[in-house]
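hey can u run this one w/ flavin-adenine dinucleotide bound, need the structure tokens asap thx
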Amino acid sequence: MTEQPVPLRLAVVGGGLTGLATAHRLLELSAAAGRGIDLTLFEANDHLGGVIATKQIGGYTVELGADSFITNKPWGVRLCERLGLADRLIPTDNTHRRSLVLRRGRPATVPEGFQLLSPVKIGPVLMSRIFSPWGKLRMALEYFVPRRKLQTDESLASFVRRRFGKETLDRLVQPLVGGIYTSDPEKLSLRATMPRFVEMERDFGSLIRALRSTKTVPSEKASGARYGLFATLAGGIGELLQTLEQRVRAGGEVRLGTRVTDLTPLNGNGHVPRAAQVDGSLHSHQGFQLTLADGTQATFDAVVLTIAAPQISSLVRTFAAQAAGALAAIEYASTAIVVTGHKLADIRHPLDAFGLVIPAAEKRKVLAVSFTSRKFPNRAPAGCVQLRTFVGGAMQPELAELPDHELRSLVRGELESLLGVSGTEDFCEIARWRKAMPQYHVGHLERVEAIDQDLSRHPRLAIAGNAYRGVGIPDCIHSAEQAAERVWHGLQP
Ligand SMILES: Cc1cc2nc3c(=O)[nH]c(=O)nc-3n(C[C@H](O)[C@H](O)[C@H](O)COP(=O)(O)OP(=O)(O)OC[C@H]3O[C@@H](n4cnc5c(N)ncnc54)[C@H](O)[C@@H]3O)c2cc1C
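ok here u go:
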């Protein structure tokens, strides 16, 4: 009789989307290889999901965190398909497919040619009432602005000001970026967030010229397959998390309320080395010892860390100082989402769009309002609408910390003034996401490369999440699956 090999002991730290997707991929790899694993997922909270939380409230499907994901990055859709959720994916309802931006206190349409910060069509941009005649002329002059000679990273604000002028930055790019990254564009890395712009300038000398020559409009047809550019699940993003949770619980152990506080590489004999030995020279270690908040310890052949970058920094600093330094340098912003349900009859604005973004120049107290039930129609009962109002971000952090009653009345006042919302809400839910949104500041990609390079000395350790090469749901899934594959290969003899 052949002896079965001892199962590999694998740990995943963090039970948000990234941690669950990592654990799921490890189970897939184990099944495909016919190699048993003993998998444990550690989550500090008493529930899984991290910043994703779906609730059902009186006929409303309420998202307190992420509400949809982009489909032209394939990893979200592919995971749903592998989980048997393809039939549950729903596309956006195109009836109201456009965005609004506030201009002198009134919502105006974002020109069709400026979707997702890519100026794919110039005509509608020039027709828009968002810009002054001078602003439009300055934008058109982009054609003649010489190519930047420096190869170094640049802020998104500097790039847009240089090529299109200040008005384009203040009136459109800043609020759109605020809606995605909750960030200050003066600090945001162009290379890490909009690499396409860098390529267009490098290859064509001008973005307008690039668009006219290539005709590579990033349309739904080109990218988003049959789901449209954005998709969600019929029961909310929580459905993806629940399905992942079921799969992970079926193949491994989930330990809730269990914070990991320390990580120590084991030496070649499988022992914890003496303190003096725990440094960068420890190349041939055989796994890791995790210490939990209650002081207990457990050893694993490989570990994937999916918690926030500064927390990973403190776990790896004794044996990967360079990575720890770069991880600690990644800043995070906090945001609050106030989700409300309303009778349509109580709202003066027709809400004929997916949402409204608000330039900092308008000096308002909210960043954006998403008309959630206009994007996905089954999110509110008939005759009602669900709004998600974003407050705080990197530029107004103090507002996200207001007490509930103040936040609620701030949002009520802003909705009244921006969209003519009156009457009593059907419900109001407040979610505060503290230090949840990593900020990709100038030099971000160099920091990520430094982290990868230092950690490459530890093939049985991987990190994953939204702090490195993309903040969205598909990026997190991709990062998770790559991390799972990395440690899996690191374990092969
Ligand atoms: C408000 C908001 C709205 C968003 N909207 C969208 C959207 O619409 N579409 C989109 O694509 N993306 C969106 N995103 C981005 C996306 O949702 C996130 O990037 C992604 O969900 C992050 O998942 P994660 O698992 O990497 O991190 P998290 O969700 O933060 O999970 C990390 C987990 O680790 C746990 N943990 C922390 N420390 C420890 C420890 N020491 N030991 C054990 N466990 C620990 C935490 O409790 C947490 O559960 C949004 C993000 C935010 C914050």
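Residues 268 and 286 are 5 Å apart (CA to CA). anyway lmk if its weird
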